[in-house]
Amino acid sequence: MKRSVTFIGLCVNHVGFPCHNHCGFCVLGHRRKKNSIPFSRVVALMDRLRDWRNRNRPKDFRLFINYFRAMNHDRETTVAMSQLDRRLRESPRELMMGGIEFKTDDELKPWLQERRDVGMKVIRLSLAGTQPSHDKWVGRPGDFDFNLRAARLASEIGFERHEWLLVSRSTIPHLEALVARLNEIPGRVYRGFRLLTWGNAPKKLEERERITREMFEALPEWVRKDVQHTAILKSEREWTEEARKLPDEEPPEPFYLILNVEDASMEWLEATSCDAIVSDVEERSRRIYETVPTMKALGAMYGNRENECMYWRSEMQHVWARRFLEEGGLEVEKHLTWVA
Asked: Are 115 and 73 in contact (CB under 8 A)?
């Protein structure tokens, strides 16, 4: 069964800032290598793409930029990022603390205030248990205490906190103590729990840490109710059954096109019209999506009815698509899709 897709926007990936962590739950994967492109050139490209979008696409066609890595950049770059987001009609960006260079309180408070002054309203913490567990997960001793210091100082100057807490086999025993520590910090807080994201953690680590349906149901109610996207979280056994019920002709799936800004491609991007850039990305992306069968077909071929480990729907598609590609010895540009 051939997969049908529709493209609802363009996501531009720019990995241009250093990260001081080496997280076991990192979502960067193949994009881990930092490029050396000056941010001013990236801004100029985004402004060209914005003008192209405004002339050639409907208003709901979204254009946005992902920086991925930690926000280790100076005030000038912070201001430029904020101004670019406004021009792209994007909401103010969250200040992600993962991988930020360690700072003393005297350095950290003015650094936070600079970002508050340019319009950032939310600081995001990603934590994997309490101090020993978290520091081991991110590969940097002292990171847990640094994040909590940042959280306290950020709350004092008016930031709202978004706290994402990892739920894995090894972090479950630490969740209650972690939440107790976080509750000691005053301020406005949104807290959510996230399962280990498939695809970029080392395979053996993922197999060792991903929780099962039984483990999920045994979590305290105050954890389960705040697990992100619970409605589309099922075991592989359940997803296999769910896929079987899908119609033979599935409706087109909405995806964002992905444009990776890298050292090797930047000169071509600057010398090429936006029409040609987007047409090239769309053609290559559509070819990959059409190579990978529908979720119903993937489930019938590769669904494991014995596996009780939990996945989101998009993760399950990733797992099955990788099995399909590996079995067939097929090479595709995985960095262009949200499936492969």
From this structure: no
Task: Give the residue with greater pLDDT, 285 vs 25.
Answer: 285
- Percent of the chain residues topping a pLDDT of 90: 66
- The total number of structural domains in the chain stands at 2
- In a 3-state reduction of DSSP, which class is residue 190? strand
Pairing relationship of beta strands 160-167 and 189-195 according to DSSP bridges = parallel
Task: Tell me which of 228, 245, 277 is where a domain ends.
Answer: 228
d(CA 234, CA 19): 32
Does residue 99 share a domain with residue 220?
yes
Task: Tell me: pLDDT of 30 over 70.
Answer: no
Q: In terms of DSSP bridges, do strands 233-235 and 310-312 run parallel, antiparallel, or are they unpaired?
A: antiparallel
Estimate the share of the chain in helix, then strand, then coil, as percent rounded to the nearest 5: 50, 15, 35
CB 3 within 8 A of CB 292: yes
Per DSSP, what are the bridge partners of residue 227? 193
Q: What is the tens place of the pLDDT at every residue in 76-129? A: 988 999 999 999 999 888 998 988 899 999 999 999 999 999 999 999 999 999
Instruction: State which H helix or E strand residue 64 sits in.
Output: strand 62-66
Q: For the chain, what is the mean pLDDT? A: 89
Considering the domain architecture, whether residues 107 and 222 belong to the same structural domain is answered as yes
Q: CA 96, 228, 170, 137: dihedral to nearest 10 degrees? A: -20
Place of tokens 């926007």: 9
Average pLDDT over residues 296-314: 94
Query: Residue 12: left if φ>0, alpha if ψ -120 to 50, beta else—which one?
Result: beta
Residue range 123-144: average pLDDT? 93
Nearest of 178, 113, 176 to residue 150 by alpha carbon = 113
Q: Indicate if 251 and 267 belong to the same structural domain.
A: yes
One domain, residues 127 and 76: no
* pLDDT value of residue 305: 96
208 plus 118 within the same structural domain: yes
- Parent domain of 102: 94-228
